[in-house]
Amino acid sequence: AQKITQTQPGMFVQEKEAVTLDCTYDTSDPSYGLFWYKQPSSGEMIFLIYQGSYDQQNATEGRYSLNFQKARKSANLVISASQLGDSAMYFCAMRDHGSSNTGKLIFGQGTTLQVKP
Amino acid sequence: DTGVSQDPRHKITKRGQNVTFRCDPISEHNRLYWYRQTLGQGPEFLTYFQNEAQLEKSRLLSDRFSAERPKGSFSTLEIQRTEQGDSAMYLCASSWTAGVPGELFFGEGSRLTVL
Fold first, then answer.
1. Taking a C-beta distance cutoff of 8 angstroms, is the pair B84, B23 a contact?
2. Mean pLDDT on A29-38
3. Which among A94, B45, B75, B115 is least buried, having the fewest CB atoms inside 10 angstroms?
4. N-to-C CA span, chain B
5. Per-residue CA distances from A107 to A37, A83, B3, B81 (Å)
6. Among partner residues A42, A45, A101, which is closest to B101 by beta-carbon distance?
7. Could you tell me which chain B residue has the CA closest to the CA of A41?
8. Residue B65: which H helix or E strand, with range?
9. DSSP B86
10. pLDDT at position A99, please?
11. Which H or E element spans position B35?
């Protein structure tokens, strides 16, 4: 069965430093997609970054990068130069089996990130 | 604002009552999703529509739950005979078929508390 695991319930980082949020996944599908979403206290889930299983390079979007290690089945999110506004809950997600062209996602339990001034 | 909007944002009800949530997606999006999120957990998929057709429903969507998208625009999620276990945040999201599958645009959610 497909599964996403986020083992860090909470993380702290000093403003302007980099932080890595861990995510491991389990799937038997050769083709899959991995996502990171941010959920501020307002509740709205915000898409951050996407990595396809066949992508040769790690995805990057501004200060966000995804450290994709296929053999280890990990897809860690790296946030560089942390800002106070980065304080939020972060979710790793994977497209569900058989949902290659839809938005049916399986989410992990999330990691709460707090950025200290 | 042209994002996904949900109404109401908060709903408190007594066990056994019916509640209905509304979602207005981004206008050009033809896909609409409902997810449920309980405290401290990630969202769980409930159902999704492409235009007005409901294409998939999760086992989480018991027969007390019904979702509609009658004209392929807004959607409603109704819960009949609410139970305390229904207390959760109900998230709506939309996307378009030409985008990255899984890149969803979420609303701020409707928080349900069942007393």
1. no
2. 93
3. B115
4. 33
5. 9, 24, 22, 28
6. A101
7. B108
8. strand B65-68
9. G
10. 64
11. strand B31-37
